[in-house]
Every structure is written in structure tokens, then in C-alpha cells.
Write a structure and sequence with these properties.
Structural class: mainly alpha
Number of strands: 2
Number of domains: 2
Order of helices and strands: HHHEE
Strand order of the largest sheet: 1-2
Helix content: 25-40%
Shape: globular
Length: 88
């Protein structure tokens, strides 16, 4: 039985890295979880940048056929739900 070998990001080939995979093949070649990982990693530190990012997430979701139900920002001081605030 062959054991699975885990690789670090640095060890992965460039085409296996998510952003490079997105750039090379386009969003239709990535899974929803891969696309979400890219989006989550691109967070901003400024509640207006968050609103702009939310709008962009909703539009991207429409293009990909994924409904954005909520956008939750978690900080050291608490969290905010864009759905609860009526922003989605």
C-alpha cells in the first residue's frame, strides 16, 4: 500500500498553486473550495474595503452560479454579519 506524501506550498509545482492555476486555466477549472480559499486569503483591513469586497464576492458568485448568503468579518474584537446589517 502506497502512503500519501504531503507537500508544502513551496514544494508544489507552479501550476498546482491555486492563484497560478486560476491565472493559467481560469475559474471554471477550480473547485468552489479552491475559489473560496483564494477569496478568503485576499481579505482587507479597512469595514469600506470589506463592503467593496462583499459587492465583488456577490458579483463573482452570480457569474459562477454561487449565491452569497452572508459575508462575516471576524476580528479580535468581535464579528460583523453583512446580512444582519442589511448589506447583502
Amino acid at each position: 500500500m502506497q502512503s500519501k506524501i504531503k507537500k508544502t506550498i513551496k514544494e508544489l509545482l507552479r501550476v498546482e498553486r491555486l492563484r497560478e492555476k486560476l491565472m493559467q486555466y481560469g475559474p471554471e477549472k477550480l473547485s468552489n473550495s479552491e475559489l473560496l480559499a483564494i477569496i478568503l486569503r485576499s481579505g482587507a483591513k479597512k469595514s469600506e474595503d470589506d463592503l467593496e469586497m462583499t459587492k465583488r464576492l456577490v458579483e463573482a458568485g452570480k457569474i459562477l452560479g454561487i449565491e452569497v448568503i452572508d459575508h462575516i468579518i471576524i476580528t479580535k474584537r468581535g464579528f460583523i454579519s453583512f446580512k444582519e446589517k442589511g448589506l447583502i
